[in-house]
Design a protein that fits this description.
Radius of gyration: 15 Å
Largest sheet: none
Strand content: under 5%
Number of domains: 1
Number of helices: 5
Distance between the termini: 35 Å
Order of helices and strands: HHHHH
Number of strands: 0
Structural class: mainly alpha
Low-confidence stretches: 1-18
């Protein structure tokens, strides 16, 4: 039983690492983001993006933050593009 739990923990660790294949690149990129862009990045990364769904996650988080009046609607698209480039860097 101990070995099964240990093996499962190892598999889960490896799978979460694979989800963010280049988390260091995403984090380095995010340090250059400002206000609204950083909020979008943080919310998107919390959604556990993958290579296949990162764009839809960034878009959904941007819309959610605008709806909640947490980011400015007028600059949301520009902020979304900046945040998206960092999320993309983290998952590729």
């Amino acid at each position: 039983m101990k070995h099964a739990v240990g093996a499962l923990a190892t598999i889960l660790t490896l799978s979460s690492t694979a989800a963010f294949a280049n988390a260091a690149a995403g984090d380095a990129c995010s340090m250059k983001l400002t206000g609204d862009s950083f909020l979008i990045y943080a919310a998107s990364m919390a959604g556990k993006p993958t290579k296949g769904n990162w764009q839809s996650i960034v878009e959904a988080q941007t819309k959610s933050l605008v709806s909640a009046n947490r980011i400015a609607a007028g600059s949301a698209r520009e902020s979304e593009i900046a945040a998206g480039s960092c999320v993309k860097a983290a998952v590729e």
